[in-house]
Specification:
The protein is α+β, with helices and mostly antiparallel strands and 412 residues long. The protein has a 5-stranded mixed β-sheet with strand order 1-2-8-5-3, with helices on both faces. The protein has a 3-stranded antiparallel β-sheet with strand order 4-12-9. A two-stranded antiparallel sheet has the order 6-7. The radius of gyration is 21 Å and the shape is globular. Bound molecules: protoporphyrin IX containing FE (HEM).
Amino acid sequence: MTRDARTLAESFDLERLTPEFYVNPYPTYRALRENEPIKRLPNGAYFLTRYDDLVTAYKNTKAFSSDKKREFLPKYGASLLYEHHTTSLVFNDPPIHTRVRRLIMGALSPRAIAEMEGDLVRLVDRLLDCLATKGSFDLIGDFAAAIPIEVIGNLLDVPHEEREPLRDWSLAILGALEPVIGEAAFARGNKAVRDFLAYLEVLVERRRKKPGNPDRDVLTRLILGEPDGEKLTAKELLHNCIFLLNAGHETTTNLIGNGLVTLSEHPEQRSRLIAHPEMIKTAVEEMLRYESSNQLGNRMTVEEVELRGLALPAGTPITLCIGAANRDPAQFPDAESFDIGRTPNRHLAFATGAHQCAGMALARLEGAVAISRLLARFPNYALNGEPIRGGRVRFRGFLSVPCVTGEMRRMG
Ligand code: HEM
């Protein structure tokens, strides 16, 4: 451990991050993992960076609670953002969590997801046709973000012409989950919840009158509830639809964006994938590990827990750093290198345990189809300008990435 690394670890404060950290957080994560794997932050919370410790916390749902009612109160007060986040299944413990998760999982079965592949391929190919006509394009706006918004829109059967505001609502609501938010971000987040609720009330009313196919349409499924009579309250229904639309959106955009940028930075891995397109599955897993789109998770201890000899009292807020755990050399040999053939690759990009991402099979499919088809069509795609980062610590990705297709274009 060098002096620099020790200083990095000692001075780390999630509420006071430097511009360099946003560009490349990994030297800091490494310093923490090696020097202070259970780091006490100035606000009294603990920041965990080792793979094994994250697995312990994720698997022990009894001691590490996901319920955020207490933690979010000082941050959001009695606001719509508070109501939204504390009603979402991800921020709840059983029995609410179990009930809502069961309903959602039914519509994300392997069969339901396999049925989505044809539409997904057609959507991606249409977008690639547009890129071919343009020659230069924004990897995020023109491609990566356009895919999940359609897929998740289809999942809830939101009419195409009504999908436009979804991305901005989602960015505003998830943006408010950053460790520190200013007044403007708070106001934007609240307004997005209000507008989203107003929109969904109308959509739910229409769907109640004319239900869809519950095997494919999550909204109909949530409205109808379980055959044994379990139903969501009106508030639970609306907030969990918002959550689902958000959960499947920015994260998957960032998987596609981060994946293609990382490939462009590793020409030998890119050539390897072009020569061996059958490696796309392990390549997507490596992209998820190497540049995890969701870098942080949170839990609260509800009883005293001992971790590496340290007693954490009940009521301790914990941040689980997925980005650091996914580069832990104790779990991943040569962890800092990007290897599209890496196996095994038991990364935590989708977490693990009871809250493990409900949409991971869908995200993997979207990532594989989008990345493999872009690479097959434009093997020479290249960045041609400075990418703009999203500037967030929790959700790692880009707002825009100027690119060219690299195709020789016929002169008219
Ligand atoms: C690359 C894309 C994605 C990543 C990296 C990702 C990551 C995660 C992570 C880390 C969690 C666990 C949060 C926690 O407990 O602290 C989670 C939960 C969840 N994700 Fe994803 N996700 C992705 C895509 C999706 C998609 C496409 C959907 C929906 C179609 C989705 C739906 C959900 C749901 C419903 C939960 C809550 C599960 C629960 O609490 O039981 N996610 N996701």
